[in-house]
């Protein structure tokens, strides 16, 4: 009884397990289930590389559908999708790269303002990412341009007298900078005095014009009163003559003569006043131009504005000062930098570096010694010594920033150079690469370093030097401090003043 019952239990267990496996297989499906109230639509793509049936359709990274079928329609691919969200006519479907291996998915924007797309309607707005092959072609083109620039710089700098020409250029630049500093420092009080004088002249001219206009109005008012009084006097005399008739003719004749002379003089004065006021109103003469023509004031104002813009350009120049020290493990030496950045605009700057570098000033000294003992054949001893001397280097570069990438070109440590920087995490992390020291018989010197500002004004640095020449490759670490002119002004303002 027990031997028959045991196979029965085993068989029952197998049947139950098989049934459960079939049921679970039917329940597990890839993608979106058919019971999700799906809407079917299509879009036309020029290239569907990386897409396949059941590829995901997502909104903000959340799956909302899948690719149903892919058909060929003319010279385009017709991609049918099933999604569980309503679609409008301004919907947009974008093909995105899921990884560098070529796998793709569809990113959906369902639309908000258009009308509803009917079942099996078309999504007309499509976007396609740049393929990895196209991206590699662009990178290849950029590298070809960099190689051409490097070769051109090498031909110019590594030629005969190339280094001497660069040294001469640097000396000329230093001389020009010194002359500009002397001119600005010497003429700054004069500029201030000129601006002050212009402001005073403008205020005096404005005050004089205002006062003269008030006086001119008063003169016109007085002339009107005199003219009115003269008319009244003339009328009174006429009334007097008509009243007395000829009985007192001799007396009145003298009085009339004197009155007539006075009237003639008064008429002449009134005529002169009218002539003067008419000329002033019409802008004739120096006084009329001063009263009516505003060009003098406008010219003075323009001069003041131009002077203000010139002074503002000088004061808008931002400075950044940095000092750092780096230790090279292979050569067991330290390298010190003093750096000055001058920023006329936020996206460009001029870089001046003074470098104390013992590691790159190496010379081989050969010594030959001849010795002879007890008349024997002389012995020749040849010795070679490696001497390392401190060397003072200068860098002068121009930099231009594009978003988070900065390109540099100029002189780096007494050699022509090009550089490319990446500023990340709000400029707290700086990745700096330099290609310089183009000499015959060896590869150019490639140096890469990373700066991280772990505290305000303080940063640490690490990198690798001379990557392209394996025999001279070295690693280094270091740290430094940097300030801008605002920080320096704040420090100087709060620093205690020494007492004497």
Note down, in words, how this protein is organized.
The structure is a single chain. The protein has 500 residues and is an alpha+beta fold. The strands form 3 sheets. The protein has a 10-stranded antiparallel beta barrel. α3 packs antiparallel against α4 and α3 runs antiparallel to α6. The model has no long low-confidence stretch (mean pLDDT 78).
Low-confidence regions: none
* SSE order: HEEEEEEEEHHHHHEEEEEEEEEEEEH
Number of strands: 20
CATH C-level class of the largest domain: Mainly Beta
**Could you report the average pLDDT, rounded to the nearest whole number?**
78
User: Percent of residues in beta strands?
Assistant: 25-35%
> Helix count, per DSSP?
7
Structural class: alpha+beta
What is the general shape? flat
Major sheet description: 10 strands, antiparallel, barrel
Instruction: Kindly give the count of domains.
Output: 3
CATH T-level topology of the largest domain = Lipocalin
Radius of gyration: 47 Å
CATH architecture of the largest domain: Beta Barrel
Distance between the termini: 119 Å
Strand order of the largest sheet: 9-10-11-14-15-16-17-18-19-20
Give the helix level as a range of percent.
40-55%
Write down the oligomeric state: single chain
List keywords for this structure.
alpha+beta, eight-stranded mixed sheet, 42% helix, Lipocalin, 3 domains
């Amino acid at each position: 009884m027990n031997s028959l019952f045991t196979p029965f239990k085993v068989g029952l267990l197998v049947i139950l397990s098989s049934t459960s496996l079939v049921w679970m297989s039917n329940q597990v499906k890839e993608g979106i289930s058919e019971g999700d109230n799906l809407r079917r639509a299509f879009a036309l793509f020029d290239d569907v590389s990386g897409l396949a049936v059941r590829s995901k359709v997502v909104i903000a990274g959340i799956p909302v559908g899948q690719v149903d079928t892919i058909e060929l329609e003319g010279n385009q691919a017709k991609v049918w999708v099933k999604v569980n969200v309503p679609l409008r006519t301004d919907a947009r479907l974008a093909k995105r790269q899921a990884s560098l291996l070529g796998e793709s998915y569809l990113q959906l924007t369902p639309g908000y303002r258009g009308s509803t797309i009917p079942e099996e309607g078309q999504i007309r707005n499509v976007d396609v990412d740049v393929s990895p092959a196209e991206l590699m072609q662009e990178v290849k083109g950029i590298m070809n341009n960099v190689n051409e620039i490097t070769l051109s710089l090498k031909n110019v700098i590594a030629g005969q007298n190339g280094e001497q020409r660069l040294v001469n250029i640097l000396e000329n630049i230093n001389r020009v900078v010194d002359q500009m500093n002397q001119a600005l420092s010497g003429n700054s009080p004069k500029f201030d005095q000129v601006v002050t004088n212009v402001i005073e002249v403008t205020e005096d001219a404005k005050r004089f014009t205002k006062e003269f206009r008030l006086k001119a109005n008063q003169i016109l008012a007085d002339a009107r009163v005199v003219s009115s009084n003269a008319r009244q006097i003339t009328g009174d005399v006429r009334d007097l003559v008509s009243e007395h008739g000829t009985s007192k003719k001799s007396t009145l004749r003298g009085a009339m003569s004197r009155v007539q002379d006075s009237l003639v003089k008064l008429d002449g004065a009134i005529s002169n006043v009218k002539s003067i006021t008419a000329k002033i109103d019409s802008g004739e003469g120096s006084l009329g131009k001063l009263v009516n023509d505003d060009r003098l004031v406008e010219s003075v104002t323009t001069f003041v504005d131009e002077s203000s813009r010139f002074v503002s350009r000088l004061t808008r120049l931002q400075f950044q000062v940095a000092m750092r020290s780096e230790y090279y493990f292979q050569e067991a030496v330290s390298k010190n930098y003093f750096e000055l950045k001058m920023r006329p605009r936020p996206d460009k700057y001029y870089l001046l570096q003074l470098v104390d570098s013992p590691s790159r000033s190496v010379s081989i000294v050969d010594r030959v010694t001849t010795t002879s003992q007890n008349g024997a054949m002389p012995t020749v001893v040849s010795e070679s010594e490696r001497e390392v001397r401190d060397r003072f280097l200068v860098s002068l570069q121009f930099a231009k920033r594009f978003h988070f990438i900065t390109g540099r070109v100029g002189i780096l440590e007494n050699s022509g150079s090009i550089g490319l920087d990446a500023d990340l995490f709000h400029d707290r992390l700086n990745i700096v690469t330099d290609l310089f020291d183009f000499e015959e018989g060896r590869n150019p010197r490639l140096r890469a370093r990373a700066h991280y500002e772990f505290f305000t004004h303080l940063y640490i640095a690490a990198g690798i030097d001379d990557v392209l020449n394996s025999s001279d490759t070295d690693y280094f670490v270091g740290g430094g401090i940097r300030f801008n002119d605002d920080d320096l002004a704040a420090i100087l303002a709060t620093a205690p003043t020494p007492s004497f």
